[in-house]
Amino acid sequence: QVQLVESGGGLVQTGDSLRLSCVGSDRTISVYFMGWFRQAPGKEREFVAGITWKGDSTYLTDSVKGRFAISRDNIKNTVYLQMTTLKPDDTAIYYCAASILPLGSAMSEAARYRYWGQGTQVTVSP
Fold first, then answer.
1. Residue 52: other Cβ atoms inside 10 A
2. What is the C-alpha end-to-end distance of the chain, expressed in Å?
């Protein structure tokens, strides 16, 4: 059973930056497609970013393009979400997730991911 642990969330002001980290419990995640999702109060969980196991392709939802970036370090079993120019609308619990299968157009579907972290809270004040 792979475990994922997110960290790096916090309370920031509009325009600030944060870097979230997601550490896997073993090296198997180095071959998984990894994604970041977020869930705001009263809203459904939404896809934010995804990255192939090699890190050669990354994907971002439209609302964060130009502000967020996803990357990974397979030596450290870690995936990152660099967030800049944060807005109050970015306030949510952020989750990382791992898919044992390559994901193409289905990467935004939460059900495609087998493993999930517990989430880390990001709060952006006006």
1. 17
2. 40
